[in-house]
What does this fold into?
Amino acid sequence: MSPARTLRGRLLCPHADEARVVLVADGLLEIDAQGTIAAVGPAPTDCELPESFPGAVLLPGFVDAHVHFPQTRVLGSASGPLLPWLTRSVFPEEARFAEARYAAAVAWEFCEQLVRHGTTSAAIYSSSHPIAAELLFTELERRGLRALVGLTLMDRGAPPELLLAAGPALDACTALVERWHGRDGGRLQFCVTPRFALSCTPELLRGAAALAERHALPVQTHLAENHDEISATASAFPGSGDYLAVYDDHGLCGPRSLFAHCIHLSEGAWDRMAARGAAVAHCPDSNFFLGSGCMDLHAPTRRGVRVGLGTDVGAGRSFSLRQVMAAAHDAALIVAASAGGGSRSRVSSEALLWHATRGGARALGLDRPGMRVGCLAPGYEADVVALDLPEAITDAAALCDAIAFRRDAGPARAVLVRGRTLR
It folds into this structure.
């Protein structure tokens, strides 16, 4: 518990349900002793409280909807496309996480990067080693970050040192659920995490679904990232109609499911995803880096599918959601150009900032009684980031542009989770 406090400054306030942001040019943000926002509003003209972070703008903390903890040290390893990249760069590195000292060191580095870039919540893949997931949870708890963490499930399609059979893997997941799920009022959660369909036997997929159902757990995995991956998945699961159907057929497509990438989905698959209430982690920077393609952001949003933004480190080249916002803007332009769309298909920086904050919180299921995240509004958890931006910028649209498109942006000035200062 932190002492009650009031912050003063420029406030960018995402709407709870619509992809838009409101600016309070000189506002007060009151945080109670439980770390909940008690009140938000304009500062009175005779307010004597000084600006809390002079020159900065206050907004909700960024939400990373898709990031790989054991890829922290291979960030920027350009050996794509996807399947060769996994073999050459990722699997050898992830094998090192069987060693506790190595995993603990990287957990510290990983959390440090999240805080530095103003990320207060994240959906995180650990490795397939239970000790690595345990150490990551421990470091996240110590640092005060909010996270969904999963033991990455793989019982085929990878080197032997990364494989864990269905029975031991699900037992390890159950132990992690009992120890960590719902820790600190839900700040830490366990997330059922099949790497992707190719890494799992049908037995493991069904067992993962049963575990998620038994404990009402979130689920995260990859979907339709790469053409070779899609073809291999069709061969591995010939009884399923398409890639999304593989997950649906095994009980892993529903309102607690979060699918990363979703670049190459049919209109019918998008319709089914919307009908199931599943969410999407849009990872445009890693999609560019591995040459996977560009997801059409309008495909999910026009259907009402929840969408967050993911760095996807290490295929993503930065822990910064601001860089991902810029990549999402560029991806939308490419999709529009290929479809002959024009300006109507552009995505505004305001909408992108919403997806990087409130939209991401909704995609991760961080919007329920007792825990609401992603807005600067009464009743929401006080996850707040202060970003240095020129004081001459005085309107919301220009501030959103500066957050999304300034490539020279430095680290966050301050980061708070539940009102507790992390940076």
Q: What stands out?
A: The domain at 5-60+374-421 is CATH 2.30.40.10 (Urease, subunit C; domain 1). The chain has 14 helices and 19 strands.
